[in-house]
Design a protein that fits this description.
Elements: H1 4-13, H2 24-33, H3 38-48, H4 63-80, H5 83-106, E1 111-112, E2 120-121, H6 131-136, H7 140-159, H8 166-189, H9 195-215, H10 217-223
Antiparallel strand pairs: 1-2
Helix pairs in contact: 1-2, 1-7, 2-5, 2-9, 4-5, 7-8, 7-9, 7-10
């Protein structure tokens, strides 16, 4: 998988091509990082001593999941008579699809793109990155969370949005930067026991990223030119 922060940054980058629809851009950015929550299932299985096979880059990375999410939210939108729920679902679907495509293009592991059908696709099959690179990509998660938060902060300052949260966001970005430095040192110096503290902090950071996106929805919607589409 590419780092979750990279997916979030890519989600923000498509804003100029996104139609001005309430919650659509919010859904795209959320959908870009949501698929990596399957790491929570991996963590639970690992701690419980169960097999982790089929838990990562499968059910959250499937085109069937994309279709199901879009359909579900359109049903909700029809029931509550609020079109924005349909746009949120469409955005989530687009974001998840972008996540899948980016994982296929820039990472060295496959994606079960038609889960639950056998459908592993790995465009980098046979390519093995050097060990130092594989190690560095673990703490790099925190580096790209930092850059994602910084990008959101810059957008907010430029637009004059979410001004009451920018300082807090800057603190979160700084913390992620410190975590990158600390875990970069640890990944090359710890002979064993690295993955448990790293995994725990990573999952907390991933949850934080979801919360930040929701909290910064005004900035995200305005970035798409939808100044009258702030979620209420």
């Amino acid at each position: 998988m590419a780092q979750a922060g990279i997916h979030g940054i890519v989600g923000l980058a498509v804003r100029r091509w996104v139609p001005k629809r309430e919650w659509l851009m919010l859904g795209i950015v959320l959908g870009s990082i949501v698929p990596d929550t399957d790491n929570l299932a991996v963590a639970v299985a690992t701690l419980a001593g169960w097999s982790t096979k089929g838990l990562h880059r499968t059910f959250t990375h499937s085109l069937f999941t994309v279709a199901a999410v879009i359909a579900l939210f359109y049903v909700v939108a029809w029931i509550v008579r609020r079109p924005r729920w349909g746009y949120l679902g469409l955005g989530l679907g687009i974001g998840v699809l972008m996540h899948i495509l980016l994982d296929l293009v820039v990472w060295f592991n496959g994606v079960q793109i038609l889960w639950p059908l056998p459908s592993w696709i790995n465009l980098w099959e046979g390519v093995t990155p050097p060990e130092w690179w594989s190690k560095l990509m673990l703490p790099a998660e925190f580096l790209f969370f930092t850059l994602f938060f910084v990008a959101l902060g810059m957008m907010a300052r430029k637009q004059g949005s979410n001004s009451d949260y920018i300082r807090t966001l800057s603190i979160w970005a700084a913390i992620q930067g410190v975590l990158f430095v600390v875990f970069t040192v640890l990944v090359y110096t710890m002979a064993r026991g690295f993955i448990i503290p790293f995994g725990a902090i990573y999952l907390l950071s991933l949850g934080l990223a979801h919360g930040v996106v929701v909290r910064m929805r005004e900035t995200i919607e305005m970035a798409a030119g939808c100044r009258s589409c702030h979620p209420r």
